[in-house]
UniProtKB/TrEMBL annotation:
Keywords: Amino-acid biosynthesis, Aromatic amino acid biosynthesis, Cytoplasm, Transferase. This is 3-phosphoshikimate 1-carboxyvinyltransferase. Pathway: Metabolic intermediate biosynthesis; chorismate biosynthesis; chorismate from D-erythrose 4-phosphate and phosphoenolpyruvate: step 6/7. Residues 1-11 have a biased composition (Polar residues). The gene is aroA. It is an enzyme of class 2 (transferase). The active site is at 312 (proton acceptor). Phosphoenolpyruvate binds at residues 20, 91, 119, 166, 343, 386. It catalyses: 3-phosphoshikimate + phosphoenolpyruvate = 5-O-(1-carboxyvinyl)-3-phosphoshikimate + phosphate. Residues 1-20 are annotated as: Disordered. PROSITE patterns: EPSP_SYNTHASE_1, EPSP_SYNTHASE_2.
Amino acid sequence: MNVTITPSSVEGTARAPPSKSYTHRAILAAGYADEATVRDALWSADTQATARAVDLFGGDVTRDGNATLEIDGFDGRPDVPADVIDCANSGTTTRLVTAAAALADGTTVLTGDESLRSRPQGPLLEALSALGAEAYSTRGNGLAPLVVTGPLSGGSVSIPGDVSSQYITALLMAGAVTDEGIEIDLETELKSAPYVDITLEVLADFGVDARHTDDGFAVDGGQTYSPAGGEYAVPGDFSSISYPLAAGAIAGDEGDGVRIEGANPSAQGDTAIVEIVERMGADVDWDREEGVIEVSSAPLSGVEVDVEDTPDLLPTIATLGAVADGDTRITNAEHVRYKETDRVSAMAEELGEMGVETTEERDSLTVHGGDSRLEGATVSGRDDHRIIMALALAGLVADGETTVEGADHVDVSFPGFFDVLEGLGVALERDDGQ
């Protein structure tokens, strides 16, 4: 599907979709449990991949209504899957499920689409092998397809922290049901650290104790997953909140602007987007008790932003920088190149198609907003939900129409994204090619 956006001002109320990061962890945590209900879940392409894996491990995920999942778990001991686990485009599913597969007394094969098969898994495979499982890449290059044979015994392991925090999440979640537990020593500084804090928060809510140590993280073995009252509720997603928030900052009606509901504080590092937008000059008010953000546009100025812990915000910040006066420099961004696509290059190149000047370095992206004039163009979404949504925002204030190709990939994290934009007053047309 292609979506064409006509420049528009935005006003009205949007509700934050449930967090994709929390939903992934909650579905798998419920799988590790005997049974649990996950409420307010995000049912997207990515989270459905995690649900399919739980089913293949011997659990059962049933959707009750729009956002409630009734999950019969595999109670800490996954079955050997009867089929290959297809993780589709979900890197989170791949990493979390690879560690779960190491608990099974047999062999599991995992794969995914072309993009997923280009994302690094080597450090996690090496860690699982060091902990008593057998784990390898069929091509010998640390990339999917992956073959994992358990059972995992647990113990101590060292792993780099600067490739993906999801490795640590995967090991902590699996380690809780091993006999020995798992102690993780970080070989390098941990990037995207707030995502591990999300994991610790979800584990605690499921009755599992995991903790920071002087050198990394640890989780005791022999624990049981069991949320209080048998239920867990997923909070709103600040990665997704960044889009209506940025829309309000660049195109919000000066009188009313955009009201975002469901913006409750949590361990999500991407809550930083509120401070970033405010620092750039937008009129922002966040009522943390009510979970409501109100934002309207004002002249924006370029800033410097470190995305070491908030990689998913880079596309949104790049679009804000294209509208702002002066330079917006996004630093500590090398790990953002290993997502669904190389998001650093993707934003530089696609914004370039719209007339935006950028300077790309290995670890940074500088957007020269003061030297740019946003012009409508046909741009590629790169099969990446975050690139698509960020480019759609640029179309709100570009001179002329902007067509984003492959826009249906927003289903990965924000299935109703374009409905939300229309609800805020954006003029857009969908073309499904039929």
